[in-house]
Amino acid sequence: MCMLRLIFILIIFSSTVHADCVSSLQGYSVKRLAPFADGSCGIDDPVLLSATPSTKFSSPITLSCEFARKVGEWTENIGAKHITHAGGYNCRKIAGSMFYSQHSYGNAIDVTHIDGVAISKQWRTAYKEACKIFNTVRTPDHDAAHHDHLHIDAGWGFGCIVDFVR
């Protein structure tokens, strides 16, 4: 009986947290999606984000609700009107690794252009602002895999604390 109560409380608490997140996205063009799992991947609180109060996206993108909120904060901080991205949710492992990418949980976005300017040409300001909000930010200077985009995620990482070279 005690176990059933615990499960009930966890379900109610989880639903309340997710409902609060979506309600915090005032002014966003966002659609709540049903939670889903895909093997080792999935999102508990997925949303389909088309725009934040200040920024339109090149196409709707599936992200976790909390990550969408952080993306909105970042786009506002950099003053972006339009973001072109290469995707959000994608169930896959990090290239050359046994670990799943944060894309697998809706906690990552790959940005290729900001206001029509290619990331490969101008990324430093966007990078510095992203470092204030996200745990991991990869730039064209990091490695060949990120030569044409910013990879931004909220997974494990030290953010830009140890990345003093950039």
Would you give an account of this structure?
The chain is an alpha+beta fold. The protein has a single domain, classed as Muramoyl-pentapeptide Carboxypeptidase, domain 2. Helix content is 27%, strand content 28%. It is built from 3 helices and 10 strands. Strands 1, 4, 5, 6, 7, 8, 9 and 10 form an 8-stranded mixed beta sheet that branches. The longest helix is centred in the N-terminal third of the chain and has 22 residues, at 2-23. The chain starts with a helix and ends in a 13-residue tail after the last strand.
Using the coordinates shown, work out and report the CATH topology: Muramoyl-pentapeptide Carboxypeptidase, domain 2
How many β strands by DSSP? Answer: 10
Determine the mean pLDDT: 87
What ranges have pLDDT less than 50 throughout 5 or more consecutive residues?
A: 1-17
**What is the CATH first-level class name?**
Alpha Beta
Overall structural class, as computed from helix and strand content, comes to alpha+beta
Radius of gyration of CA atoms, rounded to a whole number = 17 Å
